[in-house]
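Need tokens for this chain, all 82 residues.
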Amino acid sequence: MVTLRYPADARRFGTQGKVLISVIITKDGRITDETVEKGLGHGLDEEALRVIQQIPDEWIPGTVNGETTDIKMIIPVTFRLG
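Here are the structure tokens for all 82 residues:
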């Protein structure tokens, strides 16, 4: 299980919202090319990337016309102070 840690800077400044991470899911179900598409700063972008990079490589690959293919996907990571 991957645990999300709220960065101290983000907590101090009250920063919350969504970080959008783009990834490529390969034909063999692995995640590659993790990139922040829309960030929030204050350490949240780096934390979102860290969490995405720790997700096990057990994805179901995309198919187009019955053929397995690499696909690009956007994964939102939501940060909320509670």
